[in-house]
Amino acid sequence: MIEPAFLLREKGVPVTAQRIAVLNAVSELPHSTADAIAGRVRDTIGAISKQAVYDALGMLTSKGLVRRIQPAGSPALFENRVGDNHHHVICRSCGKTADVDCAVGKRPCLTAADNSGFVIDEAEVIYWGRCPDCIAK
Amino acid sequence: MIEPAFLLREKGVPVTAQRIAVLNAVSELPHSTADAIAGRVRDTIGAISKQAVYDALGMLTSKGLVRRIQPAGSPALFENRVGDNHHHVICRSCGKTADVDCAVGKRPCLTAADNSGFVIDEAEVIYWGRCPDCIAK
DNA sequence: TATTGATCTTGATTCAGTCCAGATTAGGGG
DNA sequence: CCCCTAATCTGGACTGAATCAAGATCAATA
Fold first, then answer.
1. Which residues in chain A are contacts of B128 at CB distance < 8 A?
2. Which pLDDT score, from 0 to 100, does residue A106 have?
3. Which residues of A touch B119 (CB under 8 A)?
4. Which CATH entry fits the domain spanning B4-78: 1.10.10.60, 1.10.10.10, 1.10.3210.10, 3.40.50.300?
5. Residue A111: pLDDT above 70?
6. Calpha distance A124→B88 (Å, rounded)
7. Fold agreement between A4-78 and A84-136
8. Domain boundaries in chain A?
9. Quick one: fold of A84-136?
10. CA atoms lying within 13 Å on the CB side of residue A11
11. Confidence check: pLDDT of B4 > 60
C-alpha cells in the first residue's frame, strides 16, 4: 500500500496523525459511516473529535483520495477505492453495500439523451436489490 | 390528469383530503422537498401536520405513485413521474434538478458485470454537473 | 347510522452533520 | 535548531431532517 503520509504531502496539505489515521480507517473499513470511521480511529490513536473526522473526510474527498456515497435512508459512506469507475449495490433489507463494475464499461450513460443544457461531469449509480444472505432467509 | 382520488382508491387505501392534497402538490412541484410540499398543501387545504406529509409520501412511494430521490447533501425530493425509467441531473452549484432520459435506453446497466450474488431490481442514476444558469455566471 | 381500524395531530426525540471560539500543531523562515 | 503564522483540532452548542408515541379523528364497510 502507498504510504498515507506521502499521499497527503503530495496534495500539499499538512500531514497530521488524525488524517493518516482517518485515511487508514477508510482503507480498512470500506463503505462505512463517518461514525464508524471515528470509532476505528479511536482504536488506533486513542481519541479524535467528530469534527476532525468530518474535516479530514471532507478534505480527502475534495483531494480525490476518498469517495463519498450517500444512499437514501442512510448516513454518508466513505471508501478509498477511487480512480476506477465502479458503482455500488445496496441490499434493501440489511443495507449491506458491495462494489460492482458496470457491465456497460467505463463512464456509463455520461451522455444523457437530453441534458437540458447541463454540463455533466459525473454519473453516480446505485443499484438496489437484495444480498445473498437476505435472499436465503 | 387522472383524478387523484381514483388513484388512491385503486390502491385500496383510504382517501383523505391530506393525501389528495399531497399528491396534487407533488404534481405541481416536481423535485421538491417534503417541507416544500407541506407548504404547498397548507396553501391548498389550510393546515397539515409534518407527520401526515411524511406518512402520505411514504405510503404513496410504497404504492408506486410517487418516487423519492435523495441526492447527497440535500433532503429527500419527491416527484410524480413514475413508470418510465428516467434519471436526474443535479447542479453542483445551485442544486437545481432536472429529468433526463438515459441515452442507453431502458433500465441501463441493470445487469452489473459482477453483482456479488445480489439480485438487483433497480438502478438509480444521478448525474452531477452544472446547470445553464450557473455556467453563464 | 354504527363500528372499526387506519389516519392525523401534537410534541418530544433521535441522529447526522455543522458552527463556533479557543487551544494546539505542522512546516517554512530565520 | 527554534520561532512564527496559518492551518488544524477540540469540545460543546446547535441546526434541520426525519422518526416515534399517545391520543383524537375520520374513511369505509355493513
1. 120-124
2. 47
3. 129-130, 135
4. 1.10.10.10
5. no
6. 10
7. no
8. 4-78, 84-136
9. Dna Ligase; domain 1 (3.30.1490)
10. 16
11. yes
Q: Nearest C-alpha of chain B: how many angstroms from A127?
A: 4
How do residues A15-73 score in pLDDT, each as one tens digit?
A: 999 999 999 999 999 999 999 999 999 999 988 999 999 999 999 999 989 999 989 88
A67 sits in the region (left: phi over 0; alpha: psi -120 to 50; else beta) called beta
Please state, as a whole number, how many other Cβ atoms lie within 10 Å of the Cβ of residue A135.
Answer: 13
Compute the distance between CA of residue A88 and CA of residue A99 in angstroms, rounded to an integer: 5
Cell numbers describing residue A95: 443495507
Q: Which pTM does this prediction carry?
A: 0.84
Checking DSSP bridges between strand B97-101 and strand B77-79, what pairing results, if any? unpaired
Size of interface A-B (CB pairs under 8 A): 145
Give the residue from B97, B106, B52, B94 showing the smallest Cα distance to B70. B97
CB B24 within 8 A of CB B5: no
Strand C footprint at Cβ < 7 Å?
A 9, 14-17, 33-35, 50-51, 54, 58, 70, 75-76; B 13-14, 16, 18-19, 47-52, 55-56, 59, 73
Q: How far apart are CA B28 and CA B134, in angstroms?
A: 24
Q: What is the Cα B34 distance to its own chain's centre?
A: 10
Disruptive mutation site among A124, A130, A133, A137 for chain B (greatest number of B CBs within 10 Å): A124
| Residue whose entry in the numeric block shows the C-alpha cell 497527503 | A8
All cell numbers assigned to B100: 433526463
